[in-house]
Design a protein that fits this description.
The structure is a homodimer.
Chain A: E1 6-11, H1 16-29, E2 33-37, H2 45-51, H3 55-59, E3 62-64, H4 67-71, E4 76-80, E5 91-92, H5 94-104, E6 111-115, H6 124-127, E7 132-134, H7 147-164, H8 182-198, H9 201-204, H10 207-221, H11 225-243
Parallel strand pairs in A: 1-2, 1-6, 2-3, 4-6, 4-7, 5-7
Helix pairs in contact in A: 1-2, 1-7, 5-7, 8-11
Chain lengths: ~240, ~240
């Protein structure tokens, strides 16, 4: 696992201090890629103070207008969630999440770890962009974790995993597929929605609920780029046939 | 291991925000005993803000004039140190430290985890009060860890250790799906082959090779029974549309 290829993505952060504290602990743990999606706070003096010298991370942070844009090159995306039980996604603890990210990025492919708003976390639509979720095992009596503390736990778990994995273990080398990116995945879903509309399937079923189920199935499979291409080829053939 | 019997001891803390953030993450991780040795910062508004509701921990914090006083009832003391190699002490990583604390407090004896000054850590005399040290494995290029971040890592490590002791496999429990049977899977493949024949897709592609790829994708996803049913519903809708 290459820590340089893992992005920390903060969505709509409202406290600049949290952005700064995130940059600092990223530098501590050897992470370097910070993305800000529609930030509600600036990289201001408070952020610089809390970053305590990790200015290189703040200065190279990239800002995006939407989460899918920020994730477009990621082959594997883990979202943080306070909810411990969500039947729709695989939910890992921090070490499990670090393991699964390591497994998905064996050849240094980009991955992303997404953190939601201080107040309300990630929306369902944002969770839909993720392959899996991570839930930090907090005390149910006081579950509200500071954003930078959540980043700290996850960055630490990733660092432990990266240090463990210095000598690549053999079983891990079996995969030769090129994993599909989040961008390819969104194209496939769009194509699928069009096709299901063509055949009238979405009219008879709860559209959103169905697509969420399909996204979940997809997230479990972690398809390769080629597999996505095959699926799109099939959809194209179906649509062509229908329109004849 | 009983988290209630482990004290977090902050020595000569200079930033009240760090005291507040420490209280918050202690509450998140199920720790409750906070001790302040010769604090240089007060439990002020900044501390309250950063504690974000963990006032019970701030209000019950005990203040001491010296570290030995704060540690008087502890059977085992671990000090945090940025230095990775110190010949005089055993130095653990965070999980190792949590393990050794668990081992020393099997019957719920009090233990303590000591954190030094933001600027300079613990003095040699203070380190002498400890049974062992813990060093968080930070990047040597940017080793300066925020005090509350260090508390976060250690509190998380302790919590993981305490949960392990209770229920070994908890985090894995999120999935409650009924996996599809091999029979359901074969029906799905047969249905898919028919549909692909209908749309002429298999004529233009190597039939066997394609189906092998689809089977492989399926095996990665480990679909539930419901997911297979949805896929078959979609195929049925497609075939119906084509035959109209």
């Amino acid at each position: 696992m290459n820590l340089d290829s893992i992005s920390v993505v903060l969505v709509s952060t409202t406290h600049s201090g949290n952005i700064g504290a995130t940059a600092r602990v990223m530098a501590n743990m050897g992470l370097s890629r910070l993305s800000l999606v529609t930030p509600r706070a600036a990289i201001d003096e408070e952020a610089r103070t809390r970053a305590s010298g990790a200015d290189h991370i703040l200065d190279s942070a990239r800002v995006f207008d939407s989460l899918p844009e920020a994730l477009s090159d990621a082959v594997y995306v883990v979202g943080t969630s306070a909810r411990q039980r969500m039947s729709r996604w695989r939910v890992f603890d921090p070490q499990g999440a670090a393991d699964t990210i390591a497994g998905a990025t064996i050849s240094g492919e980009p991955a992303a770890l997404v953190f939601g708003r201080e107040s309300s976390g990630l929306s369902n639509a944002e969770l839909d962009c993720c392959n899996a979720l991570v839930s930090i095992p907090v005390d149910s009596a006081f579950p509200s974790l500071n954003l930078a503390a959540a980043v700290t736990v996850m960055a630490y778990a990733l660092r432990c995993r990266a240090m463990e994995a210095k000598e690549p273990n053999e079983a891990a080398g079996a995969r030769v597929e090129i994993p599909a990116t989040a961008g390819e995945r969104e194209h496939l879903f769009a194509h699928l929605v069009e096709t299901l509309d063509d055949v009238g399937f979405l009219r008879s079923h709860g559209r959103e609920k169905l697509m969420r189920k399909i996204r979940y199935l997809y997230s479990k499979a972690q398809p390769s780029s080629e597999e996505v291409a095959i699926a799109r080829g099939i959809l194209a053939a179906i649509r062509q046939k229908i329109r004849k």
